[in-house]
Amino acid sequence: MNAIEIFDSSSNANSSAWIVVNDGVMGGKSQSTFHLGAEGNAIFEGAVSLENNGGFCSVKLDAKALDLSNSNVFTIRMKGDGKEYQFRVKSKKEDSHSYIYHFQTSGNWENIEIPIIELYPSFRGKKLDLPNYDGSNLEEVAFLIGNKQEEKFQLLISKIEAT
């Protein structure tokens, strides 16, 4: 099966397509940036603050609508910092809920494999009584860090694809 490319930092060298959304939307003080690094990888980095009931940083990419119903796995080529992150997708950009999968990074370059069917629906941290993601439509991907602690973070992203 051919991989469906969602993001490749070497060919999608436009970091402005990604939008940072931090807890400032709710009064928090967390800060993050998303940019392309000197080696050509996308870099999502910043500092999570718990001040003013904050506690998360995220970045999202509006993807062209993709049908992933014949795919089983998202594969993300990345280098994390040993922290836990969330990979999030939306079937429709305007949906209030996201489908979420938690993953742990090792501190080394690695391929994180995320079974599509294991992404569960959630809104503001609450699991919803809806079916898990089925891959029939994809319009947004995102990364979020929110581990209920103040921490600096850095996630390098090379590629996101579905197979």
TrEMBL record:
<dbReference type="InterPro" id="IPR013857">
    <property type="entry name" value="NADH-UbQ_OxRdtase-assoc_prot30"/>
</dbReference>
<dbReference type="InterPro" id="IPR008979">
    <property type="entry name" value="Galactose-bd-like_sf"/>
</dbReference>
<dbReference type="Pfam" id="PF08547">
    <property type="entry name" value="CIA30"/>
</dbReference>
<comment type="similarity">
    <text>Belongs to the CIA30 family.</text>
</comment>
<feature type="domain" description="NADH:ubiquinone oxidoreductase intermediate-associated protein 30">
    <location>
        <begin position="10"/>
        <end position="157"/>
    </location>
</feature>
<dbReference type="InterPro" id="IPR039131">
    <property type="entry name" value="NDUFAF1"/>
</dbReference>
<protein>
    <submittedName>
        <fullName>Complex I intermediate-associated protein 30 (CIA30)</fullName>
    </submittedName>
</protein>
